Amino acid sequence: MEILTQLIISAISSGTPLLIAVLGGILIERSGITQLGAEGLMLMGAVTSCLVFIHTGSLALTILYVLAVGAILGLLHGFLCVTLHANQVVCGLAMTIFGAGLSAYLGKPVSGQPLTGAVPKLDLPWLENVPFLGKIFAHMDLFTWFSFVLVIVMHLFIHRTSWGLHLKAVGDNPATADVMGIPVIAIRYSCIIIGSMLIGLGGADLLLVYTPTWNEGMTSGRGWIAVALIIFARWNPIRALVCAYFFGVLDILGFRVQLIGSHIPSYFLKMIPYIMTILVLMFLGWHNRNKPSGAPEALGIPYIREQRF
Predict the structure, then answer these.
(1) Would you call 128 helix, strand, or coil by DSSP?
(2) By three-state DSSP, how is residue 121 classified?
(3) Tens digits of per-residue pLDDT, 289-303?
(4) pTM over 0.85
(5) What distance in Å separates the CA atoms of residue 267 and residue 25, rounded to the nearest whole number?
(6) Of 38, 63, 170, 285, whose Cβ has the fewest other Cβ atoms within 10 Å?
(7) CA–CA gap between residue 32 and residue 155 (Å, rounded)
(8) Tens-place pLDDT, residues 4-24
(9) At how many degrees (to 10) do helices 2-30 and 237-259 cross?
């Protein structure tokens, strides 16, 4: 039981940065904009959090800077995709390349410097006496609790509010939504900016909590996994939580197998979560081949107000 508890705690810690990034991606893609720049945004969030925390020692200021950088990159992405009607796939790839290159350059002076105790844990003594669950939830960090709240808020926002209906209309048929008086451009810009801030915050969580040392390319493809898990979760926040922790379990299993003295090369063990993600996506694609995908119908299609059909 103790081993299972530690495995779950580690899986939650590993999956939380991914969960925050997936939720940001869901918000962006629900508005009809394809998000392929998550890898670059997570790297920029990670390097920004490292630089600011080393120089200031303030967690609040660090989060503020990370959100600001995410907002600026989101604004740039929105200007390209929404205002200039640029190809959204190309813009996403450009964001990834730009974020990877700039983060590597900015992070050189602080590469390898450890960051310990950056994010405090929220201690809940009254939970410690609860069997099994007490050990898991009694001493979680603030980012993990934030991710739980964010899942609930996004689920209620998308499925239980009129704003969520407007978002669905913009993602499915922006021309009709525009005719009905829904501000398509404003909603898309807002979703891209807020979603980019969340993706950057996922990168900050990865550095401040899970791997408290900056190294070039430290996300190790987690941004691309986030893009895959958006599809895996069918653009649903509740499913996103399950998918992120599923990846977290697979990520931690590789380390656990090494600890028990397995002779399997570590390179193969590190491949497990990525291979399983690909296999699950292939299975879901085959299983749901005759069913609606759940994706917004106008996803990836630029909306030009003068062109109506």
Answers:
(1) coil
(2) strand
(3) 777 777 899 999 999
(4) yes
(5) 29
(6) 285
(7) 18
(8) 888 888 889 889 999 999 999
(9) 140
Average pLDDT of the segment spanning 234-257: 86
What gap in Å lies between CA 44 and CA 48, rounded to an integer?
6
Q: Which burial class, exposed, middle or buried, applies to 33 when counting CB atoms under 10 A from its CB (0-12, 13-18, 19+)?
A: buried
- Closest of 249, 307, 308 to residue 276, by C-alpha: 249
Query: DSSP states of 194-227 as a string?
Result: HHHHHHHHHHHHIIIIIS-B--TTTTTTHHHHHH
Q: Report how far residue 138's alpha carbon sits from residue 159's, in angstroms, rounded to the nearest whole number.
A: 30
Residues 250-277 as b or e (16 or more Cβ within 10 Å = b): bbbbbeeeeeeeeeeeeeebeeebbebb
Q: Contact 170/182 with Cβ under 8 angstroms? A: yes
| End-to-end Cα spacing for the chain | 60
Question: Tokens at residue 92, please?
Answer: 């996403």
**Other C-beta atoms within 10 Å of 116: how many?**
7
Question: Could you give the angle at the alpha carbon of 58 between the alpha carbons of 114 and 194, nearest 5°?
Answer: 100
What average pLDDT is seen over the chain? 89
CB atoms within 10 A of CB 115: 20
Tell me if 214 sits within 8 A of 113, measured CB to CB.
Answer: yes
- Confidence class for position 3, pLDDT limits 50, 70, 90: confident
Closest C-alpha to 4, from 256, 268, 264, 220: 256
Rounded distance between C-alpha atoms, residue 216 and residue 239, angstroms: 31
